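Review form for a predicted model. The reviewer records the input and the model, then writes brief findings.
Reviewer: anonymous (R2)
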Amino acid sequence: MNDLLSVSQAWFLNNEGLLSSMAAMLAVVSGLIFWFSRIFGRFGESLSNRFGKKIGEKKSDKTPQSLVTKASNKVAKNKQIIAVLPFRTLTNNGDEEYLATGIAEDIITSMSYSRLFPVISSATSFSYKNSKDIFGDISRDLNAKYVVTGTIGHGLNLLNLTVELADCDSQTQLWSEKFSSKATDLFHLQEQVSERIIGKLSPALRSAKMGYARRAAPNSPDAWDHVLRGLWLQSQSSSETNLDAIKEFQSATEMDVEFGYSYALLAYAYHLRSYMGWSTNFTDDLKSADKYALKAISLDSEVAESYLVLALNGLIMRKFEMAQKMATTAIELNPYNGLCWLAIGLVDLYRGRYQEAIDHFSHVERLNPRDPLQWLFHIAFSLAYFFKGDLELSLTHSQLAQIQPLGKVGGELLNVACLSALDRHHEARLFLTSSPPAKGAWDFVLSRLPFENTEKIGVLVAYINKIDSHILSGSDQSKRSTAV
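Model under review:
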């Protein structure tokens, strides 16, 4: 051992110069590493500033898509969901029906402002009105914990409401109360009912001020009556009732120029008129929808429908970034509105993000299993699956869309395109023989598909022309795809 130490000492003494040189080289190399790391770090910061991330760093999902996913998870986990059914009338007076529906609809809207308890959209909850097992169906289909029902009647110039709140799981009544009010004070009555419901669900709020954003009450009772009539007419989904609804909402805005909610409803009515082909001047109606939506936001920035209209209009005009931003804002304001989720799914669809679109449409279906707009959901599904390459699923959804009258034309078009793409030409021709489209009907449907890549329209056209080249007009394909 001593000999080994002696040899080592001798070696170090004889190679002292070499060791000094190696130490110097090590110091130089360390210095170079330090300075290169500084330079590379600054380079990485420069790229980070330019492209949004550092070298080697995983990309952070800060896009609106991640916000939507977060909202979706919040919806899925919530166990305090409320469903409000249309109120029942105590008489056979048909004039009370719009009040019965309008009151329930506005309680839903008022409660959606609370941000304390999520409430199912009227389009879905109203479909359970005649359900034989209301509690079981609503709990199972909508994951709802509570259901609100009520009756409405008139007496001695008073409007009488009886409202009940029940627990779906135990099927027991939690609270029941009668309200009376002059018809001219209907808006405040509905606010009172929604506040009382929330108070019963959250005892801590009973004695405290309701800490949620409220819509400003209309200055004119007649303005509110026009809003309720407009909502009732809009739910009928026809060109005539849509035009009558526009007149009612327009009257509401004229009677109270500061009531933002009525402008939002007017904006949506105009959008629906232009999109559904009920318009005599598509461009003017689209501009009116934008104008009234912006007006509504300037008066009340918390109404989700205003941003929804801007999102849907943005899609039609192919302003995809704006459409996504508006749809995301609408979801943040009301994550239980199926149309808001549909809008952001359509953004994905028309930009070629088919799986993301399917995920969002699936969420719409879970959220609104009985929505009257199911035909539109199925057409959206069919398009997404078609371009994703799953033709069988696309065909299934095209057939489901045809069950509802408003989805018949679009469903038939996609049905033929799918059969053609599957080389089932004989089936496609038999289908056309039994259900020939009206002249120009399929051209109209194609004009309502604003794909960012307009060649996608050409794909559909090519498959349809394989079956029958006379179905579509001879107009230029690019004009058809950019008509809106």
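Findings: The first strand starts at residue 81 and ends at 84.
Further findings: Residues 16-51 form the longest helix (36 residues).
Recommendation: see findings above.
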